[in-house]
Amino acid sequence: MTTSIPDPWAAWRERRPPARLVHLDSASAGRSSYAVLEAVGDHLLREAEVGGYVAAEQAAPALARARTDLGRLLGLGADDLAFVESATAALDVVLDVWPLPAGARVGVPPSAWGPNVELVRRRGHRPVALPVDGAGVLTPDLLDAALGTDPPDLVLLDLVAAHRGLVQPARELAAVARRHGVPLWVDVAQGLGHVGADTGADAVVATSRKWLTGPRGVGLVGVAAAHHERLRVPARAKHPGTGPVALLESDEAHVAGRIGLGVAAAELLAVGPTAVAARLAEVGRELRDRLAEVPGWRVVAPDAPAGAITAVAPTAGQDPARARADLLDAGVLTTLCLPWRAPGEMSVDDPGSLRVSPHVDVTSEDLDALVRGLAATGG
User: Fold this and answer.
1) Secondary structure class of 50 (helix, strand, coil)
2) Are residues 211 and 302 located together in one domain of the fold?
């Protein structure tokens, strides 16, 4: 990685407000572009000028384009998508309308996002662990064997693990699950705008604010067309003739955020999702190489398939929370990962780790600042 950012990644940074710190936290909330921010602000202004509902009617063409563009990224049609408030809200919605049996067994790998597993339990279902290889990957062979012997009612998969960046082979797993007649849902919150997000899943949940760098407060639920008729979605007199997935949307909506999400999706398509994924893979490799040399820290699962997300754990008794705070004081933004994020992999007495998630416009100077800051906490 060179000191200057190669095109088009220099342009990526120039299209965003200058950061006030070294932003290595795209897995929490990416930095929106001027165009996204302007689109959100323009719609809010329009709501004040003509009223919220009139402004929403006027925004219908932009929202339709957003659904089409997001469908291209996810391998779904525009009618397969609904806007909701977050990826968590999306999962709650699909758990509500999909005809699962009471107390359904939901297969999850150990790396599953903890709040998703908690939500499954709150809905009265039972998470069951799926077998994985030594790197934490749910391989097609392992899933095939599990579904052939004791199949759960549903498989719920994170495309990219939130706490350490593990990338699962979702498209291959979808083919296996389909062969066994077991639905596969994929949480693409950490994958959309990061790795290829066309998973072939039966349902997907996503958010705007991470690698896609859209606004906060907007999420997506997607259901493949083959499953629309099975959804338990009551008709609504206010929306006659509306398809079942569209009926999952709330009328009391953050329309400005949805428009901003559409702009972010269009920007990603213009740059090229494949090019972005390739750049982020390069960034991740460089990052892990750099962090492997920092005393007092180790890269978590360095050989697992991963994109740009990288986790480091202390080896000299450091407190990761204190280290994260010290880094922030030094102007470097990272994330503290505690066991609640992945209780299937992290024990309750695990002190935690730091997650580093730079975007395509990261520079060598940014990584130098991270390495210096971490080295200062190395015990």
Assistant:
1) helix
2) no
